[in-house]
Amino acid sequence: MSVAHDHDHGAHDAHHHEMSFIEKYIFPTDHKYIGKQYMFTGMFMALFGGFYAYVFRMQLAFPNMSVPFFGRVSPMEYNAAITQHGTVMIFWVAMPVLIAAFGNFLIPLLIGADDMAFPRLNRLSYQIFLVSAVVLIASWFVPGGAFGGAWTAYPPLSADARYSLTPMGSSMWLIAVALEFAAFLLGGINFIVTAMNGRAPGMKWNDVPMIVWMICIASILFMASVGPLVAGAIMLLFDQNLGTNFFDPRRGGDPILWQHLFWFFGHPEVYVVLLPATGMCAEVIPVFARKKLFAYDTVLYTTIGTGVLSFFVWAHHQFVAGIDPRMANVFTITTVLISIPIAEMVFLYIATLYGGSIRYTVPMLWALGFIFAFLIGGVTGIYLGASGADIYFHDTYFVVAHFHYTFFPIAFIGTFTGFTYWFPKMFGRMMNETLGKIHFFGTMISFNFIFLPLFATGLGGDHRRIYNYNNFPELATPDLQNLRILATVALLVLIAFQFIFIYNTFYSMFFGPISGTNPWKATTLEWTTPENPPGHGNWPPDNMPTVYRGPYEYSVPGREDDFWPQNQQS
Amino acid sequence: MSAEATHDHGHDHGAGGGHHEHIHPPSHYVKIWGVLCVLLVVSVTGPMLGIKIITLITAFGIAFVKAGIVIKYFMHLDTEKPIIWYALITSVVFMVLFFAAVSPDVMKHEGTRWENVAAKAEVARGLAAGAEHGGGEHEPAPAAEVH
Amino acid sequence: MAAFRPIANTRSATGIPTAKLAVWWLLVSEIVIFGGVLASYLMHRLGHPEWANYAVHTQTAIGATNTLVLLSSSLTAVLAHQAAQTGDGKKAAKFLLATIAGACLFLCFKAYEWHGEIEEGFVPWTNGFWAFYYTAAGIHASHVIVGAIIMAFVAKDAYAGRDLHRVENVGLYWHFVDLVWIFLFPLLYIAK
For C36-49, how does the pLDDT look when each residue is reduced to its tens digit (9 = 90+)? Predict the structure, then answer.
């Protein structure tokens, strides 16, 4: 709630005193530093998520071999690895980086404000998030081991330590997730309120850059969907620790209820992280096509349509879970319907490219890569959304390949799009183009070699929760095993290419060429700050920007420059 | 953000204290509190008649009336911007949607070619125990499967 | 760090004060949290006729008294808002203190009631009804506690004449806590 003191009306007193190191970097209230904290925490957690993927992929490709840097993988450790990989990548990588990091960094800059509406609430949100990450990491080292009930935590497995065999791990996992939700609820309220109220004078709703819309709509989706799961998490925590009987059928509970509570949140969650990633494409593509975003209004309506429809599709995750078959029909229809607005949005991005003078810079390559990869993810989703087909595909590697073709583009390609595009604004220096392109092609090619084989193994009957295929003679055939080895080798290549990105990031942060305030010749407000990277308050308090036009005015006929910044009067 | 936000107001509302337009006297609020108390008495005494329809109307119908009064007169939602309405109503609608889509699975214990054995057993056990004494002490039933 | 008000906080493109807008969004997120509990409870309750046998053990008299306490504390909260509107911070603080007293009274009744029920052997793990009974009322009670703590801070500032707009905002939250109880009361106590 309200965090500022009323008597301090001379808004910018803080300008006048030098902030200590701790104030500036450890407990900052400046949105840019909080954004960077989220960014680097998320990237740090991505190392863990990637390491877990490495562990279980190695076990699948070379069963019972001692995995370098880990050792022999026991069945319990295998389950823990897939669970923690999923949890970390969605809740501690995709969410903090795409929503919190970019939301914090971009929203005030793109709407022409000096900070978030509630800077101290913002700091609190990061601190809660950090605690949640610490609790999660701690849960990997407690007696009994880390929780291994998959990121969906289906009861009865998760409801009782006698089933899960992780008495502490499962409760700590649940507490970490609940804390993370609290952090993003606070952050989301801040984003929405800032964008609703804090816009620069003259900025009408259709002058707001698409990424701001998308992050705000994503925050609203998160806020409206997570409530039942917060309630469900409390109920599950009681089941685990008090012995209540909400979800365990042996004690009279109903496990299907948890699945509904989970997926009522879980499916909108996909769109919560998808929307910011598509928003980044909407920012990047016009800049490097030097062309106005095609049909701003329609992009907005498709976003809202996707957001609303995303609340009507959740039970397509439960077609074989024992839900009412009549509901399965309803959810098949809504699931297929939601592909319409998303497909429309992709068409609009392609239409933006049409006739533009396209520059294949690194951010543009990532944006195009996102559209390509997400398209595959979206199209394979149609198979799974049809309840009849899903009976055969359910819980096979086809599902794994499908949602990695959506989540990998979202969490990594989307992040790389935004990160390489706004890097000059974050650190004032340019990234190395050559290294960036090597990283792009290495990542994209190896990514496809991980998950295309998994479509094939899924169609071949590979069940996704098997620890060692040698125990299943009909699945332990050489042709399937070779595909598993191919996927694992591709993963190793993918991980290797990320070191190029890490090197490029840290080298360019300190030694890259100075970028200047507007290296991409873009029109949105963040490129108009007097300092680069922007100082505290972004603009001088007596000279905040005023907005005169929409965010994508490129190649306007009759003008000398091919871009027309939002704050230029004429 | 909404269509209402189209116009740039740009006023400095942030420091102010909300609506200065109409300040009601305290007696106005005390009267509303009185109405709420009367409704409370009705909602408690109504179910004592033991007629099911009256129980439903007095218990739940009056809950909605009370909620409406609190929202309108105490929270002043009637003078609030429509965007607030939309946000609140949307979240309520989503909860109705959640109930509507989940209740066929959780509320009902059988349907077309499916049956929730565990829940039926729990109901039968609870009713049998309730016939003897009202406690309904729970004893773990043997593992039952949900089809 | 010197607490300062960023320009973003002072703007109001929607015409709604920024802090109040944030409270409304907070309430949206609360509606779905309580909505999840209540919807889950309701579908179980309708599917389990035997729960009526358990529900007879809840004490309607205490529930009704607590409803009266919360309704009255809502009255004092709105009177505090009214005093803040007229610019009388001291009066607003006094009404807020009365609201806090209502919150404490509510919690005392709650503690007494739960004590009696636990004595009788009705604990959260007795069966599904009591699990929901304690969970739903417990989440609500935690909101009462948080609300009382926030109101203490707001009352302190209001007494000094600072941040009077917060009186309305914390009041909105308090009315919401009251609203939840208005629905919990018939669901847990009256429906028998």
Answer: 999 999 999 999 99
